[in-house]
Design brief:
The chain has one domain: Porin, CATH 2.40.160.20. It contains 1 helix and 9 strands, in the order αβββββββββ. The chain has an 8-stranded antiparallel β-barrel with strand order 1-2-3-5-6-7-8-9. About 10% of the residues have low confidence. Keywords: Signal. InterPro entries: Beta-barrel_OMP, OMP/PagP_B-barrel.
Length: about 200
Amino acid sequence: MKKCIVVFLVLLGVSGFLFAGVNYIGASVGVDFLQRTMTSEGASGSINQSATGLGFGVKGASYFGDNDEWGIGYSLGLVKMLSDKMNEIKVDVSDEPIVIDFGVKGQYRYAVSDELDLHAGVGFGYTTQTDEDSGAGLSLSISSIIGGVDLVYNVSDTIFVNAGLAIGIPVSGKMVVSSGGASASADLSVSGITFTPSIGVLYKF
């Protein structure tokens, strides 16, 4: 969690310095719809997961100039699972740990009208989830290719509202099990997709 926050703050600071033209920062809420299959190296079986989650996050975008089309987008979010199934077996999500979600994208924007912009980007995403109980721990991390499209409407010169759809395609994963000071890890083969519709508010500076 701390590493993701540090990386996000560094990106925010560096992009604000390098991209002196237009910067956006704001908050969003969205719903994750997740379908994926995970297989550990050497294992004979797979885990098929189907889940939905409610996410809250901070995201931003930075562009070279007022009229420049290219820039960088970044996000940091927390997702609480609302429902979860593993191999068609329902999982009790009441104690399921929060998922931490981080992403960075190359960003493109297109002015649809004077009031409405279209922002689109493709990049890298990383999620991590850690569960600890009675001295034992289980950590799951997934790396993904991510993409997203946002419609951004200006309410005023500095305040904007946005609605968007993000997609994540996992490419690799890792699981770490720890107990009594010892730990073991396994690489995961991961496939699937995550859809996340969201709405939010942005501040332009």
